[in-house]
Design brief:
The chain is 30% helix and 22% strand. The protein has helices at 14-30, 46-54, 65-73, 91-97, 106-128, 168-181, 204-221, 236-240, 255-259, 321-324, 370-376; strands spanning 9-13, 34-38, 59-62, 80-82, 100-103, 150-156, 185-192, 227-229, 250-253, 275-288, 311-317, 330-332, 338-342, 347-350, 363-368, 383-387. Helix 1 (14-30) packs parallel to helix 2, helix 4 packs across helix 5 and helix 6 crosses helix 7. Residues 141-146 have low confidence and may be disordered. Bound molecules: pyridoxal-5'-phosphate.
């Protein structure tokens, strides 16, 4: 048995998370915008996903179908959104588990239509066969009196050059095909993704471009779309400063909610410390700051530069790159501590400025960045501790 109080610990304050989410959702709602809660940053831990469910997010969203499946198995009833355009090889799972997905390939849409049809028939047959269905969830396309179709959002690439139709006519043809010829799919809307690969800023101009595409699709299919999905946290700044063009009505938000902060957003109403990473100090010694001996590459084959600052007090924390990915993505809370490096299982801290305060056995706290959250929530070597929301 592992000891119960082992470190490192990732502590999550569910009350602070709920506060951030409610505050951001309220501001979005005031602009007519719903929030899909993006859960991939924390590997879709159900304890946290339930906060999003309680706050009334219309969708929980992840790029990974296996995370959505895990949410269903944990009893989450909120509709589920698949963020990454699906692999052909996973369409069976998409049909069974996801209620809505982002799409950019016509062939994938055709095969998804067939997969939803198959899932609906299989479900019907199982029910007809009297199989007990106590726990299993009705798939999107399953046949009650009316067929529940799988919703799709067609993605337009507005220049960031990750996913999405580049050719607008191709997008419009795909929209028309879904509308007319793919009865197990429902064309729910159009969307875009910015600031991922191409570092392209989400601006009112880009939103208007998306709205124009939506209008063209609506004209072609002869009805209104449910969603114009204006992107991720990088689009939130427009909601907060009042520049979001009317008509955009859905955002997919991860990082801004979780960290209570995002580049370009003025947020003085959120908590920045939903997450606390805690690690135990295993060594404290005065050592030279410049290595002695002939220098070669470090543990990861990298050539590093070292600055000679003389003898410094250093602490070793018992966590490393395996836990959090990159040491530039964690930040000590105690002022005066600097992270100067890490290997797989060790983090090296310069504590000269606070040397009287650091001892072997101390537990130090760190803020985390979004990039390290994925690692920290994906490993069993980091113990998770939830501070429950105060429901009173
Ligand atoms: C991850 C992801 C998001 C969420 O991005 P944040 O910057 O964390 O808000 C939204 N949309 C897509 C397609 C994604 O892959």
């Amino acid at each position: 048995m592992m000891t119960e109080n082992r470190y490192p610990v990732l502590e999550i304050d569910l009350g602070k998370l709920e506060h951030n989410l409610r505050e951001i959702m309220a501001r979005c709602a005031a602009s007519g915008i719903q929030v899909a809660g993006v859960v991939k940053g924390f590997t879709a831990w159900p304890e946290m996903a339930r906060v999003y469910e309680r706050c009334g997010c219309p969708y929980l969203a992840s790029s990974r179908i296996e995370q959505l499946k895990k949410l269903r198995e944990a009893g989450i009833r909120t509709p589920l959104m698949l963020l990454r355009v699906p692999m052909l090889s996973e369409l069976g799972d998409v049909a069974e588990v996801a209620d809505i997905s982002l799409q950019s390939e016509t062939e994938t849409l055709r095969q998804l239509n067939a997969a939803v049809e198959k899932a609906a028939k299989d479900y019907k047959n199982r029910r007809a066969g009297g199989e007990r269905e106590t726990e299993s969830v009705e798939p999107a396309g399953s046949g009650h009196s009316e067929v529940r179709r799988h919703k799709v959002i067609l993605m337009a690439d507005l220049g960031d050059l990750r996913e999405g139709f580049w050719d607008r006519q191709e997008l419009i043809r795909a929209a028309l095909e879904v509308e007319r010829d793919l009865p197990y799919l429902e064309l729910a809307g159009v969307g875009t993704n910015l600031t991922c690969f191409g570092s392209v800023k989400a601006t009112p101009e880009k939103m208007r471009e998306l709205l124009e595409i939506a209008a063209q699709v609506e004209e072609t299919i002869g009805r209104e779309l449910t969603y114009v999905c204006g992107g991720a946290s990088s689009s939130l700044h427009m909601v907060l400063d009042g520049t979001m063009p009317a008509g955009v009505n859905l955002l997919r938000l991860g990082e801004s909610v979780l960290l209570g902060d995002f580049l370009g957003c003025e947020m003085d109403f959120t908590y920045r410390d939903v997450f606390t990473l805690k690690a135990e100090v295993v060594e404290v010694k005065d050592k030279p700051s410049y290595p002695s001996g002939e220098l070669t590459a470090d543990a990861f084959g990298r050539i590093r530069q070292y600055e000679d600052l003389g003898i410094r007090r250093r602490a070793l924390a018992a966590m490393g790159l395996v836990d959090y990915g990159s040491y530039t993505d964690i930040r000590p809370r105690m002022r005066g501590i600097e992270v100067i490096g890490a290997s797989s299982d060790h983090t090296i801290l310069d504590v000269e400025a606070v040397k009287e305060r650091i001892h072997v056995g101390d537990v130090l706290e760190f803020d985390i960045r979004y990039a390290s959250m994925v690692y920290l929530t994906n490993t069993d070597s980091v113990r998770r501790v939830f501070i429950p929301a105060d429901l009173g």
